[in-house]
Amino acid sequence: MLYALLMLCVLGSLLAAWMGNRAATPLFLLALAATAVAFAADVTTPLTISL
Amino acid sequence: MRALYLSANLANAWVLLAVLAGSFVMQFALAEPPCPLCVMQRIAMMMAVLGPCQTLVAAEREGLTPRTIGLGAGIAVLASLLGAAISIRQILLHILPGDPGFGGAAMGYHLYTWAAIAFTCNIAAAGAQLVGLRWFAGAPAAPAPGARTTMAALAVVLVANILSVIAEAGWAWKLPDNPTGYLLFG
């Protein structure tokens, strides 16, 4: 669900750019920041992957 | 110069869309559901495509100005930097000798290695746009052929990835670190 929400945010930015809405850039920045936070959480969480 | 610049932006967007489509095909052809890092790289790559899309649509609406070129290149650089960080993290996770890596390989490299190469090239392309700002800026507003088709293709890729990740994670908040199937279907 987390990644689906992030992609919905990117989709929102795309639709805003399509319609010429000024929300396109803030939505992009929101998606970028949220993805960066998700990445930081991934980096700081021990992996459960079996190598 | 305007036509050349817009063609370069279109090519930039379609190369990234082709990489995204290729990863999607490999996901189903090799039955390899993407891990969280793979999904985040896809998200960063889709955000990187927003850069050329913004420039193309702005060229139609307000012409090629330093602001519109700078905004598109800036979006591409920021998204690519994040994507490169994620793919380098995944490369480093599998860098030890004897580690087979995650997932299948395409032309000798794993998809996260190709992603790191694509993000690096995208940063270089955005840098070239900014270096050539003086030559590219100044064109008046005019239709940009292919702009809407490219944006529609990105929308299709986004929706497909949203459905895929929902199928993979089920109703869980996060994906498992080492996914082996689609939790929505049991």
Shape of chain A: elongated
Structural class call of chain A reads mainly alpha
Q: Which term fits the overall shape of chain B?
A: elongated
Share in β-strands of chain B: under 5%
Tell me the total number of β-strands of chain A. 0
> Most extensive interface: pair and counts?
A-B, 31 and 43 residues
Order of helices and strands of chain B: HHHEEHHH
Low-confidence stretches of chain A: none
Main β-sheet description of chain B: 2 strands, antiparallel
Give the count of helical stretches of chain B.
Answer: 6
DSSP, total strands of chain B = 2
Mean pLDDT of chain A: 90
How many DSSP helices of chain A? 2
H-E string of chain A: HH
Helix content of chain B: 55-70%
| Straight-line N-to-C gap of chain B | 54 Å
Oligomer: heterodimer
The helix content of chain A is over 70%
Radius of gyration of chain B from CA coordinates: 18 Å
What is the average per-residue confidence, as pLDDT of chain B, rounded to a whole number? Answer: 90
Walk across the major sheet of chain B and give the strand order: 1-2
Keywords:
heterodimer, A: mainly alpha, 2 helices, B: 186 residues, mainly alpha, two-stranded antiparallel sheet, 70% helix, elongated
